[in-house]
Amino acid sequence: xxxPNHLISRESExxxxxxxEFFRICEFRRRVESFANAMKRYYVGAIAKHAxxxxxxxxxxxxxxxxxxxDHIQNLALKFRFFYxxxxxxxxxxxxxxxxxxxxxxxxxxxxxxxxKQYNGLMNGCxxxxxxxxxxxxxxxxxxxxxxxxxxxxxxxxKKLSDINQSIxxxxxxxxLYTAITGVSTQLNSVYAVAHKISSDTNxxxxxxxxxxxxxxxxxxxTSR
Length: 225
Known about the structure:
Blueprint: E1 10-13, H1 19-42, E2 48-49, H2 56-61, E3 64-65, H3 70-84, H4 92-102, H5 106-123, H6 127-131, H7 138-150, H8 155-168, H9 170-182, H10 185-195, E4 204-207, H11 215-224
Antiparallel strand pairs: 1-4, 2-3
């Protein structure tokens, strides 16, 4: 995978990983590469429009988007679920936590904190459904589609998804699912870049050459001046 130079311009040391932790890093990288290949095949951009109106029903009736076929979205979902499902060793939050725990460099730790914050912010977003008058987070949309239609047959979640689709339309629901899955590819690639040099005899991580201070650190720095 191509990694932009600015993402890996600073190298720092990582504490030694256990065999299980090293496996998780290797598996995460493999899954990111697989997801990137699926993105090249199925991602067609994300363009949507609807009539300007205060009435959600008018917005739903006039909604148009370049949403891929359902089979294509499901193929993307199949690749993405390894970063999302709680029981997967490659769940992105747990991989970030692992790298954060083993990182020795404050700059690297703060960068990983930033990537995690960005990811969670995207997962909690609800712009498309909110514009239809019924806000549903991206995390919830993914959860409902994955567990009621794509990979499991949870009846209660299927009923909840059906209710949401009636409120915002299935077309809007699918577009939000599509953009939720593809919208976090930047964060997946960022974590991949951090871990791309790790090997059985190399405990090196890579980050941008910038100190991503937390607000509390910035406040303390200003106070000390």
